[in-house]
């Protein structure tokens, strides 16, 4: 997630980015997308906005090594780690975000929360996609919808691709058509003032091909299965949060 965010910020060309990691392989992987790499936490901590992009179980150790001032902003993208947990371990203003891998291409969906989300964080998020400001209590479900969501969408794209292959399309052609269809449909949702049911109806001509396929979906439990996947991811996020609230 962190490397995807770095790549997206690089693509925007609007930020000076320093990457800090103790793993030289991790730094090498992002070297082409940052202005500077370092293993010195103190050097990285000089930034106006410091992003902590690590696994939840080492957030505490990283925060212990970061000395930040109230004039700085610390952004955490660790799943399940509350803003209260982070704020108790830093003097900086704290914002918590849950981005997703599409930050790499500037098409990220992100949720952000914090007592006072600064404009510089909003600008950063705008440069890599779309975001919604939510309450801390909503971060578990946001993590499931937009953080885990890309994997669910990849699964559905794969299913459509395989159906296309079974029908005679070449694999590359089937993947292109399926993926671009999802991309185009998503962009239509974001740009349209119509609700989703109306958009479905707009594609479903009477006695046409789409209505036949939709009848299969309406008669299935596909919507329930997708909701179950989201709920499972939400529950895991809540479990992670509980582990930190107990510390």
UniProtKB/TrEMBL annotation:
One of its GO terms (molecular function) is pyrroline-5-carboxylate reductase activity. NADP(+) binds at residues 53-56. PANTHER family: PYRROLINE-5-CARBOXYLATE REDUCTASE, PYRROLINE-5-CARBOXYLATE REDUCTASE 3. It comes from the Archaea. GO terms for biological process: L-proline biosynthetic process. It comes from Natrinema limicola JCM 13563. It holds the Pfam family F420_oxidored. Its EC number is 1.5.1.2. Belongs to the pyrroline-5-carboxylate reductase family. The keyword Cell inner membrane does not apply. This is Pyrroline-5-carboxylate reductase. Residues 1-80 form the Pyrroline-5-carboxylate reductase catalytic N-terminal domain. The gene is proC. Residues 136-240 form the Pyrroline-5-carboxylate reductase dimerisation domain.
């Amino acid at each position: 997630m962190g490397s995807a965010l770095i790549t997206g910020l690089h693509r925007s060309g609007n930020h000076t980015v320093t990457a800090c990691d103790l793993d030289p392989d991790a730094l090498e992987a992002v070297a082409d997308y940052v202005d500077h790499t370092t293993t010195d936490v103190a050097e990285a901590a000089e930034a106006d906005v410091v992003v902590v992009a690590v696994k939840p179980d080492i957030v505490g150790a990283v925060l212990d090594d970061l000395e930040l001032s109230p004039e700085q902003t610390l952004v955490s993208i660790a799943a399940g780690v509350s803003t209260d947990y982070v704020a108790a371990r830093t003097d900086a203003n704290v914002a918590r975000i849950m981005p997703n891998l599409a930050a790499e291409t500037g098409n990220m969906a992100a949720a952000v929360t914090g007592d006072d989300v600064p404009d510089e964080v909003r600008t950063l998020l705008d440069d890599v996609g779309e975001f919604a400001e939510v309450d801390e209590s909503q971060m578990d479900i946001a993590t499931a919808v937009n953080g885990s969501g890309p994997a669910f969408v990849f699964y559905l794209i794969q299913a459509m691709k395989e159906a296309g292959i079974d029908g005679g399309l070449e694999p590359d052609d089937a993947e292109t058509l399926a993926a671009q269809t999802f991309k185009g449909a998503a962009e239509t949702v974001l740009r349209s003032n119509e609700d989703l049911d109306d958009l479905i109806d707009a594609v479903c001509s009477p006695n046409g091909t789409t209505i036949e396929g939709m009848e299969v979906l309406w008669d299935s439990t596909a919507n329930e299965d997708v909701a179950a996947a989201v709920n499972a991811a939400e529950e895991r996020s809540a479990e992670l949060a509980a582990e930190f609230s107990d510390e």
